[in-house]
Amino acid sequence: MSTAMIYAEFAAREAHDVSPAYENLSIAVSHDPEVLARLDTLPPAKRQPNLLYAVVTYLGGPVTDPPAFLDFVRANWPRIEPEMRTRATQTNEAGRCALLLPVLAALPQPLALLEIGASAGLNLYPDRYAYRYGGATLGDSPVDLDCDLTGHQPPAALPEVVWRAGLDLNPLDITDPADARWLESLIWPEHHHRRARLRAAAQIAAADPPRLQRGDLVDDLPALAAQAPTDATLVIFNTSVLYQVPPARRQAFTDLVRTLPGHWLSVENPATFQYAEIPPPPAETLYNIMALDGRPLAWTRPHGQAMTWFAPA
């Protein structure tokens, strides 16, 4: 797919009705040959809209005015390019815990959580957040997650987590001002609730930091998984991260994780894995697929705002 098409599709499927600012930016980029030519000098995985917009935000550029944005990119490409080559979209959206919770709560307790692509580890605290699934509420926390759940009963209890660890090529320290600013830069302009949620989740993580290890999802996973307590159910999970992993390495991870004890919980773009006999997504906007041990369970929205369960409960 051409870079222009990537941005046009992002506008139509991801930003439409979710972020007018990013929808307008994406349309503008898709029609600007000069900016597209600059993006095409980057590796394919580094041309993604979210990464460009976050880098411009991080550098203090405008992201709500398309002409000013395009001018900033052209004038500041020598500053933008190295940031895009070295950074990744480590969004660390705590809202995705609302997608994980129905599965985590149903597994044998207690749990040992190990996240692939953990960023700053904010998704390692599903037991510390509060949830709303329609009229059902669960938990008491300054981090309040709202998810439109259909096709499945809301979980009745929070999971018991006794161990939490994360593996990332570049783990972020939520107490480091530069890392915290990068995470805030990844939040879309109009999403003030997500920004407030990030700050509240950051306080929870800073008060009880998880173990975050710098490492590769294949080479370093077995040794870290072996450190989980044996009297807890190990859950290795990943959310919206494997699309950044080259296909051969992704397959190596898939082969490896199936050999490890416990369970593998995955929430990823449907293009990441091939699943047979699944129903179409609920709408034309982007939905991810949640799977447990390779078995697809539900369609999910990228920031955890909705989940449509299609597998038997």
Q: Could you spell the SSE succession in H and E letters?
A: HHHHHHEEEEEHHEHEHEEEE
Structural class: alpha/beta
End-to-end distance, in Å? 37 Å
Q: How much is the radius of gyration in Å?
A: 19 Å
Uncertain residue segments: none
Largest sheet: 11 strands, mixed
* Domain module tally: 2
What CATH first level of the largest domain would be assigned?
A: Alpha Beta
Question: What would you call the shape?
Answer: globular
Q: What is the number of E strands?
A: 11
- Architecture of the largest domain, according to CATH? 3-Layer(aba) Sandwich
Task: Provide the residue-averaged pLDDT.
Answer: 95
The main sheet orders its strands as 3-2-4-11-10-9-8-7-1-5-6
Tally of individual helices: 10
CATH T-level topology of the largest domain: Rossmann fold
Task: Please outline the helices and strands.
Blueprint: H1 3-15, H2 20-30, H3 33-39, H4 49-58, H5 66-86, H6 97-106, E1 111-116, E2 130-133, E3 136-138, E4 144-150, E5 161-168, H7 177-185, H8 192-207, E6 211-214, H9 221-225, E7 233-239, H10 247-257, E8 263-268, E9 288-292, E10 295-300, E11 306-309
Parallel strand pairs: 1-5, 1-7, 2-4, 4-11, 5-6, 7-8
Antiparallel strand pairs: 2-3, 8-9, 9-10, 10-11
Helix pairs in contact: 1-2, 2-5, 4-5, 4-7
Brief synopsis:
The chain is α/β, with parallel strands linked by helices and 313 residues long. Helices cover 36% and strands 19% of the residues.
